[in-house]
Amino acid sequence: MPASDPAEILLAHDRWATRQLIDAARELTHDQFHQRFEMGLGSVHDTLAHIVGVIAGWGDFHAGRPRREPWENSGPYTCDQLAAALDEFADEFAAHTTPHDEVVTAERHGRVWSFTRGAVLTHVTTHGVHHRAQCVNMLRHLGQEGPWRVSVVEWTLADASAP
What we know:
By secondary structure, the protein is mainly α. The chain has one domain: Up-down Bundle (Four Helix Bundle (Hemerythrin (Met), subunit A)), CATH 1.20.120.450. It is built from six helices and two strands. It is globular, with a radius of gyration of 16 Å. The mean pLDDT is about 90.
C-alpha cells in the first residue's frame, strides 16, 4: 500500500510523475524533444530540465549550501541524463525536508529568504505539477496520445510509492 504521510506522497509522486514524462519523451525525435512552444519553458526538453533543475536548486537551499550553477542551464540533456539527475536531486532534496516546521534561510540574488522546510517541499512538488501539465500539452501537440498517468490517484493505484 502506498504511503499515507502527505510529505512522503508529495515527494514520491513528484519523482514518479516526472519520470513518467521523461519516459514518454524517449519516444520523441530529437527535433520534437526540442521543438519550441508558446508554453512552459518552450520545449519538452527545457521544461523537463527546469523541473529537475528546480529540485536541485531548492535541494541546495534545504541543505544550507550555496546554490550550484542552475543545472538546467548546462544542457542539453538526453532522457537518460534527465532521469539520472532526477533520481540524484530528488534523493538530495528528500534528505533535507524534515522537520517540516524548521525554518531554513539562504541568500539568493542578493536577498535573504526564509521558509519552512514544509513550504519548500510543497512549492517544489506543486511546481512540478504545473510544469508537467505543460509537458503533457506539448506532447499532445507532438502527436502523442498518452494515456497520461501523472496524478496522485494514478500513482496510488499503480502502487508506485517507491521511486
